Description:
ABC transporter permease; MetI-like fold; mainly alpha; transmembrane helix
Amino acid sequence: MPLTPTARVSLSLIALALACLLLGDFEISTHAPWQALGRLFMGLVQPDLSRVDFLGEAILRTLAFAFVGVGLGAGAGFLLALAFQHLWVRTFCAFIRAIHELFWALIFLQSFGLHPITGVLAIAIPYAGIFAKVYAEILDETDPEPTRTLPHRVGRFSALIYSRISQAWPHLVSYTSYRLECGLRSSAVIGFVGMPTLGFHLAGAFAQGHYNTVGALLILFYLLIGTLRFWVRPRLLPLYLIVAPFCLGTGLPIMWSNVSRFFTQDIVPAPLRQGEGIEGLLPWLGELMLNQALPGIWNTLLLTQIALALTGILAMALFPLISRHFTGKLSVTCGHVILVVMRATPEYLLAFILLQLWGPSMLPAVVALALHNGGIIGHLVGRRSNAIQLRQDAPKGFNRYAYEITPRVYGPFMGLLFYRWEIIMRETAILGILGIATLGFYVDSAIQEIRFDRAILLILITALLNIGVDILARRLRAHLRLRHSINRKHC
């Protein structure tokens, strides 16, 4: 029996991941990894909530950066979405969203320093590109008929408001609320580069071995994400957006001379800055590509493909946890809790924790990427399976899973997996900051050595790599005729 195109692509991805697995480094180098894991578990079971002021400040700053960054990103993204039909707008949005928030934070740290504007822009800029793409898709899918029924004298702006935006408004609000959850994760993560959010305090607590404080911070973060739909209401959002800027703090003053020097001198390639011209630039580029860019690209692709395959396997194994066709109400509730914790934990945060437990290798990165993305996809596939109606004589157990449910959800599952491909690539690159030899490792090394010209070029290479993977994934979705409207449902 010949394989379907979807089956052939799936087997090819698994075969590629197995080949990459043979080339990767998955050694556990810590002396007592299980003891460290046990201490972390005890920290979660017995969290230290005594320092309420310290914990409260960490959460407050995390919320403030998320609200301001996502708010600015949504506003800019909406304006870009109105002009998204232009090629230059689509290209610009693809570029800014291809660069991870942490890379933006590292760039702005060199010019603005530890000022709130660094964290706000690090979130707002890539989110503007994401919002623009998704808002444009939502507006394009509105019914054009109301526009044709409007009087001819109605202006273009009024027609947009009363015909397209009025239809799309519930979807725009729903997606913006979801992006706020992603913004909270991004806000926590930028703390690892010095911003005063949850990640900053978490890194400090780990460094000092205060696992009870680590447990308290993680539990508060999970509660924050888990209760989001209860306290983030559309009518309260204006209040949050007004208050949030006053909760960012002041930070260090901006040295505008440093800003000017960074954007006019520091990021200019050294040979051009020193007057060597093209003759000096070409050897400089060759050395950078050979010793840093190519090894970084290789390891980034290697890690991405392994994480992509493991994500798919985990998602298909976990979605029955919340499917009514396999479990009862109590089991579904427990399954929801498990998947919420998995998808609520940022990949960078989880990789950081696992690196402390297992030591530096590709293993913590692969596990972190697979758990987070597998939790997201498993949750969405499980929800989709709940809409399936089975006949009364449908088989049970494994036969139900293999022959009744999986064939019906596999197409949307592959669409979700291909959508997450580019996101996994972005995260893989940034995990290099933790010491894994992906592109982020070489970016961070260049910044530590105050070679900003090298860092910027490596970040641009990362963006182009992400754009290339996104194009490949979109073409595969089109070739396999997979639905793409699900893209707006997830980060």
